[in-house]
Amino acid sequence: MSIQSVDSHRHRVVIIGSGFGGLFGAQALKRADVDVTVVARTTHHLFQPLLYQVATGILSVGDIAPATRLVLRKQRNAQVLLGDVESIDLDSKKVTSRLLDRTTVTEYDSLIVAAGAGQSYFGNDHFAKFAPGMKTIDDALELRGRILGAFEQAELSQDPEERARLLTFVVVGAGPTGVELAGQIAELAHRTLKGAFRSIDPGSARVILLDGAPVVLPVYGGKLSANAAARLEKMGVEIQPNAMVTGVDADGLVVKDKDGSERRIESQCKVWSAGVQASPLGKQLGEQSGAEVDRAGRVHVLPDLTLPGHPEVFVIGDMMALDNLPGLAQVAMQGGKYAAKQIKANLAGDDRSTRQPFKYFDKGSMATISRFSAVAKVGKLEITGFIGWVAWLAIHLMYLVGFRSKFSTMLSWTVTFLGRGRAQMASTEQQVFARVAIEDLQDYERARHAGLIGDPAVVFTGEERAG
Ligand SMILES: Cc1cc2nc3c(=O)[nH]c(=O)nc-3n(C[C@H](O)[C@H](O)[C@H](O)COP(=O)(O)OP(=O)(O)OC[C@H]3O[C@@H](n4cnc5c(N)ncnc54)[C@H](O)[C@@H]3O)c2cc1C
């Protein structure tokens, strides 16, 4: 194992994460007299709102995940370090990250923490093995393989019960991601795969969207929720409200209804889009600074997005709790830009105590239901149907990073929405099985380290496995 230090002389800004908050923060420092170091656990910036289109074969990974290093190539004051941040030391102003067996310590003068959030199973992490979430590229590719694999297995099955299980897709959580995913699985079954199988009718697939809330898209409510539900039902999606998932296994899930009764749904392909849990780095920051950390792991920040007693440390995006702001890309982007502005102002001699508080400018939120149909809320204005969908299209294209991504996405959308085709219908065995295999291997190694099982004949090191 090697430990190295990254040293520089100008004001050092370290940014954790290359998502919306991290990348927009870094770019906002382009002309500042600072050295920016982005430390992130992935080599890419991920446009999460379109992950579901990767999962359902519309877009490629490259369309929504440009390499951060290439995005920042022309920003001379920025460097990118790949690594999983394991600890932040607020007293010594150091960030420690790890890549395989290599530990890197990066010192900062200002720190922007934008490590986002992961999936939450509300204390039932064992559900994840059978109902993966949708947070990363790996998740989306695994899901694509699971969806397409279920149709393939159904084509081979002669047993009606097994076929029914294979052709039942369950999406848990009827927020924007769940709604978009359910809509796209239904369109895939009814339009894209129509006529492609000989023994099964893909259009007979059941797509179930369930949620503990009484309506879909509960954050919108009223007319928009009703409009989304009506459109989904027209597409053949079965909406099951007031339904709490109490168990998940390889062959299905157990659901508790409002009246307290439990029932089972047989389904091979389940997706979890029901909750989020902020990065565990938030807990560390709370312990060291005294900032409150809520149940979802978000850090209660001061009005200038910093930690108590640490005006040099900003916590932004999905990791922060402030004024009940939602976990949206715009909140993270505006937070990143705000933090950059404060850093520049302080370097120009402004007093930190006179900072204006962060003010979120609400540009609205939206969810697409199917091709040509979306719901959007901008202030008091509520938009549905085709106009909503055009607005959705324009806004997503605007915020995709890079001209190439915008162009190829536009092309894929034309093929999919005007025709029936989807360009990204390939999936591999590794995409489907690697996550569970890696988790099993990690469980095995943990048990071995704890002395619960003996040493195997051959032990692989991290480097050998990576090679
Ligand atoms: C499927 C899905 C659909 C969504 N749809 C919408 C939508 O339609 N509209 C909308 O406004 N919002 C949407 N969101 C929410 C939006 O994507 C988030 O609010 C936004 O990404 C938050 O930005 P962030 O910078 O805080 O975190 P992220 O964008 O999640 O970035 C976090 C970054 O930190 C890195 N990281 C995490 N932990 C570590 C660590 N320990 N060390 C190093 N790096 C680390 C990650 O690799 C990543 O680069 C969606 C989210 C998902 C998952």
Describe the protein's topology.
Elements: E1 2-6, E2 11-16, H1 20-28, E3 34-40, H2 51-55, H3 61-64, H4 68-71, E4 78-82, E5 84-89, E6 94-99, E7 102-107, E8 110-113, E9 117-119, H5 137-156, H6 160-166, E10 168-172, H7 176-192, E11 206-210, H8 222-234, E12 237-240, E13 244-249, E14 252-256, E15 262-266, E16 269-272, E17 276-278, H9 281-289, E18 299-300, E19 306-307, E20 310-315, E21 320-321, H10 329-347, E22 365-370, E23 373-378, E24 381-384, H11 385-399, H12 403-418, H13 429-449, H14 462-466
Helix pairs in contact: 1-10, 5-6, 5-13
Bound molecules: flavin-adenine dinucleotide (FAD).
Flavin-adenine dinucleotide (FAD) binds at residues 16-22, 39-42, 48-49, 51, 84-85, 114-116, 134-135, 176-177, 279, 281, 317-319, 327-330, 332.
In brief:
It is built from 14 helices and 24 strands. The protein is of the alpha/beta class and 467 residues long.
Describe, in plain words, how this protein is organized in 3D.
The protein is α/β, with parallel strands linked by helices. The chain has helices at residues 20-28, 51-55, 61-64, 68-71, 137-156, 160-166, 176-192, 222-234, 281-289, 329-347, 385-399, 403-418, 429-449, 462-466, and strands spanning 2-6, 11-16, 34-40, 78-82, 84-89, 94-99, 102-107, 110-113, 117-119, 168-172, 206-210, 237-240, 244-249, 252-256, 262-266, 269-272, 276-278, 299-300, 306-307, 310-315, 320-321, 365-370, 373-378, 381-384. The relative contact order is 0.14. α1 (20-28) runs parallel beside α10 (329-347), α5 runs antiparallel to α6 (160-166) and α5 crosses α13 (429-449). Helix content is 35%, strand content 24%. The strands form seven sheets. The chain has a six-stranded mixed β-sheet, sandwiched between helices. A four-stranded mixed β-sheet has the order 1-7-6-5. The chain has a four-stranded parallel β-sheet with strand order 12-11-10-16. Bound molecules: flavin-adenine dinucleotide (FAD). The site of flavin-adenine dinucleotide has 33 residues, from α1, β3, β5, α7 and α10.
